[in-house]
């Protein structure tokens, strides 16, 4: 540390984040932008990546020195999985615990909106058309949630509460999971897709999961099934999804994440039949910034006291391994 009592903490952000006032006097907080990051990193003890959409860190990472702890105000850490950080002794943590339930609620809203054709209702209201229609039941339909971490589990629990029959797919199989009963392995996904009415992607982005939803995966789904992605954009081959929607293989879809963000105005996804587009906002609620700051402040206290940190990323896996309460873990 630069000083035993006041560690130097860089905050990568364009403006001061809310909720860090309690750290005054406990740390030397230095707000930096991308232009100053390379110059400031070598002398930093810790780094808060508040601007979690940045791509500046790999080039700015120092060859010597640098933070012993990096915390990102996001659930996904794929932007931080560059070799110099992965191979270093730097501890990486994320904001797990903030986003799970809001994303699960967003997914549930999508399922209901698609099943009940809210878009069609809004369109007819706009055009002052009174047209009685029938819609689909949600209860009793089958959902496959891909991603066995806390976001996927929250989605599975929330959808089950709506009466859906839910299968959860994770990295490894588990026959007696205390939260969801059975967890299927990724290798079982092909057998589950043909029976699913809803496929929810909440997986982390790793080399194994990149492009996992492609033409082959969509061809396995039953005709008319719906696909929802709240994971990462590169999990989906967007041209293949577009073709599946246009052909009628998929009955609808909803995307909150994209390979390129913001989604370009000329992207054909804007006009894809049956597709709901939202601008990477499924986790963002009225209190999310304060909630993100609270996770960092709590971890800062642990770090200063030499206690185990929350949400430590396994840099070989590319995410925080999930431990159920029965395993002695936390959500």
UniProtKB/TrEMBL annotation:
Listed CDD domains: 2-Hacid_dh_1
Alphabetized PROSITE patterns for the sequence: D_2_HYDROXYACID_DH_3 (PS00671)
Domain of life (superkingdom): Bacteria
Annotated ranges, domain D-isomer specific 2-hydroxyacid dehydrogenase catalytic: 34-313
Family annotation (InterPro entries): D-isomer_2_OHA_DH_cat_dom, D-isomer_DH_CS, D-isomer_DH_NAD-bd, NAD(P)-bd_dom_sf
Domain D-isomer specific 2-hydroxyacid dehydrogenase NAD-binding per the UniProt entry, residue ranges: 110-282
Keywords: NAD, Oxidoreductase
Keyword Oxidoreductase: yes
Protein family (similarity comment): Belongs to the D-isomer specific 2-hydroxyacid dehydrogenase family.
Identification of the protein by name: D-2-hydroxyacid dehydrogenase
